[in-house]
Amino acid sequence: MTGRISLVRSLVATLLLALAGAVLLPWQIELQYRGKAAGFRSISLNLGLREQIGQSGFLAALSGFRSPLAAILWIEAHTAWEKTEWGRMASLFDTVTTLQPHNLLYWDIASWHMAWNASAAALQDTKQSSLALRERAARQYIALGRDILERGIRNNPSDYLLYERLGILLRDKQQDHSAAADAFAKAASMSSSPAYIKRFAAYEVSKVPGREKEAYDRLRSLYEGGERFPTLLSRLEELEGKLSIPKEQRISTAAKSPSTSHRTSK
Amino acid sequence: MSMSLLAPARIVAIGRNTFTELFRQKVFYFLLLFALLVIGNSAFVSKLSFQEEFQMLKDVALGAMSVFLSLLAILTTAMLLPRDLEDRTIFTILSKPVPRYEYLLGKLLGVLILLSLSALIMGLFFIAVLVLWEQSVLAETQRALAGSPQELAAAIAVVKKAAFSWDLIPAMAILLVKSALLASLTLLISTFATSGIFAILVAACAYFIGHLQVTAREYWMSGIGGHWWTRLFTAFLALIFPDLQAFNLTDDIVAGIPLPLDIFWQTMALGGIYVVVYYSLACFLFQNREL
After folding, report:
1. What is the residue extent of each domain of chain A?
2. Would you say residue B3 lies in a domain?
3. By CA distance, what is B251's nearest residue in A?
4. Inter-chain contact A68–B64, Cβ cutoff 8 Å?
5. Alpha-carbon span B178 to A42, nearest angstrom
6. Considering only CB atoms, which chain B residues are within 8 Å of A49?
7. Closest residue on chain A to B255 (Cα)
8. To the nearest whole angstrom, how far is the Cα of A232 from the nearest Cα of chain B?
9. Domain range for residue B130?
10. Residues of chain A with C-beta less than 8 angstroms from the C-beta of B58
11. Would you say residue B1 lies in a domain?
12. How far apart are the CA of B263 and the nearest CA of chain A, in angstroms?
């Protein structure tokens, strides 16, 4: 191509381009803010991420390929799992969740790998003869799993899933029933949460010394709502004994006589 | 012979010709085939949970669509004018009563048809793979939980939530608009470029700078520190280049964030306006260019 364009025309074109940019600028800014408010374009690609994913990965993330890059790293993490390279997995999970902070699946599975699989593997580590050190390593992986969930919650505070997973981790892995109850209660307060989470919250409260009355009220409320799960009934009966609930108000009596139950609930 | 300001028949004829020309190029088939292979293969990532498989499929497929549409837009548009000049077709066309702006509009139209067709093929293939995969997982779930209707209903809801979502359609539409923007930007570049390779290189640079435009804009508008010439330079970048990050909504859509309708339409409109601006400037530059 040998064609030429006059310098004046080129300068005018550049000025017109800048003018169009200036006209579109408020719209772009408005769109950016509205997008951010809706959960879009909220991740910051900083130097920390640049170190994690390397120059080419950073360039890909900048060019709008965050999600495919995260998917590739996720598959890499899966391969690391098959080789039980827990440290590498933790590092890859960190990168993936940084790239895709609004993807609940990544937070959920990353924390499960750390708190369940890595901690179990640490306990069975034949290279480590000291049980105390094995248990310490397991506790650290569980804490890492909890940290992943807590960071996930900070990034996605309005979804029940990660609160529920945190409740399960606190209940099954750290036996912190009070915190587990709070996490389940928070999950249950979310609009899309399944009904069973409310029950889970009440079960956990029933395991906390000193909160028996609160647990009884919550379980009784579920019972009045028509729930008749075996665990719920046994917990209620146990609490009735502990709280010395009058016999006529107990569920065994109430179950036998629906009218009594009706009166009691009033 | 009277000549109207804009003759749709002439534009369509040039557009159809351009499309046919581009459609016959090997690069189109290679890119499309490669994109379809990537989309198809991403469904067969073994040993992952079904939720992870769906996630991988959506991430990789939309990423592949974005890459191939952008490449197609830049590569095909950059070669349009140089090729016409090389085989002297441009002289035959412009010696007839065809204004230069109609010639450029016809060329752009041909590229846009090609991009739309490519997006349609890739999109339909992606949705077909996703739906087939979803049906396979649903059938497996139904077999496994046949005895427990309550659990089955909950499991089906989980599978459906992880698989196809209607938000994927606007996500693909935004990818198409982004590629149309890149095509018109490349057309503008090719009106002053000295060769096809030069146009490709400048368009590729513009692509990367466009993704950083928001950083330059925020620095410029923050008004904090820096030399006056740094501020002037960032202002220049912010005003000259398009904000391509505005079109990168797919990363968050595949993560499950619902796309509000107003943001979708505003993004589409912004892309459309960029196309008009770049086309108009391309006409302005091309009007008096020596051929």
Report:
1. 61-156, 158-266
2. no
3. A67
4. yes
5. 20
6. none
7. A103
8. 19
9. 8-287
10. 67
11. no
12. 7
ipTM: 0.83
Q: CB–CB of B22/B75 below 8 Å?
A: no
Contact B47 A103 (CB under 8 A): no
For residue A244 the two structure tokens come to: 């010395």
Taking the CA of residue A137 and the nearest CA in chain B, the distance in Å comes to: 26
Q: Which residue among B244, B254, B290 places its CB closest to the CB of A64? A: B244
The pLDDT tens digits of the residues spanning A109-146 come to 999 999 999 999 999 988 888 889 999 999 999 999 99
In a domain, B189, yes or no: yes
pLDDT tens per residue, range B92-126? 888 888 899 999 999 999 999 999 999 999 999 99
Report how far residue B118's alpha carbon sits from residue A238's, in angstroms, rounded to the nearest whole number.
66
Q: Determine, for residues B212 and A5 on separate chains, whether the beta-carbon distance falls below 8 Å.
A: no
Would an 8 Å CB–CB cutoff place A126 in contact with chain B?
Answer: no
Say which of A24, A71, A82 has its CB closest to residue B56: A71
Question: Searching chain A, which residue's CA lies closest to the CA of residue B246?
Answer: A32
- Please count the residues of chain B: 291
Distance, in angstroms, between B56 CA and closest chain A CA? 5
Q: Which among B79, B63, B62 is positioned nearest to B28, based on CA atoms?
A: B79
Q: Which residue of A has its CA nearest to B197?
A: A1
**Which tokens hold the place of B5?**
């300001």
- The span from the CA of B34 to the CA of B25, in Å, is 15
Q: Residue B245 half-sphere exposure, CB side, CA atoms within 13 Å?
A: 27
Q: How many domains does chain B have?
A: 1
B170 part of a folded domain = yes
Q: pTM for the full model?
A: 0.82
